Amino acid sequence: MFEFIQRIDTILMLWIQNDVRCAVLNPIMIFFTTIGNVGAVWLALGTLFLCFKKYRRLGFHIIISIALCYVLNDLVIKQLVQRPRPFLTVEGLTALVPKPSSWSFPSGHACSSFAAAYVLTKALKKKGIWFYALAALIAVSRPYVGVHYVSDILVGAIVGTLGAILCMALFRKFENKAASSPPMV
Description:
mainly alpha
């Protein structure tokens, strides 16, 4: 099964490089990849929300969800799977950005982006859906620039979404428990 996925991923990576990449898209995709580095755009947004009392809880939820997803994705799954980056294994593939030294599977960019987009959409309803567009652009930029396989992106998005769902459930549980606790004297 893994060999089949690897074959499909290799075909997709070479197709992206040879048939999709172009001078107009390259700087756009490099931009989206860059703002997704270490979840920067999402952490900055979470930090901004912390500055406003009305949105402080949302900012906290974004940052904690990204932190939990980082642990699940980068410190657990990547270390267990240890899949090399595509530029190391796909002959003729070139990366458009500095080559990361971490493992490829799953994508941390996709994970943090979809975690943040989930939290934002749950809090902001219809307005939050625009954050999924940004998350998708960041995720799609990773295979485009040659540093992640398409399957890395798909699984990263799933891990981020599930991690955010778990995080939100834990928040609700602790917030409900705190609200029902008698006041301390």
